[in-house]
User: Fold this.
Amino acid sequence: MLATCGASLLSGMSAYAQDPFKDFPLVISCEYKGTYHAFYLSRVTQDGTATFSASDRIAGTITLDGKAKAVGGSDGGSCVGKTLKELRASGQAHDLKS
Assistant:
């Protein structure tokens, strides 16, 4: 049943004119207060803002042409202020390989 649900979800995504997740990495790794966190892509809004969430209830946002920002008033650690290009160049952005 789970496989059927997953297949339905994936086939439903192909119906979109453009996949809103395709230009963003699946995971961004950041150091925050001496601990390394994996921030997972959790949503992309209609205006193109991607939200990445990690454990400890911390999150950040980024757009394709903007800089990473912390959500909720935290300083955000080693990712804040970097563009997607900079995160990829530093090895902090991890794309899903097919």
Notes: The CA atoms of residues 25 and 36 lie 17 Å apart. The radius of gyration is 14 Å. The beta strands are 27-32, 35-44, 50-54, 58-62, 69-71, 93-94. The longest helix spans residues 2-13.
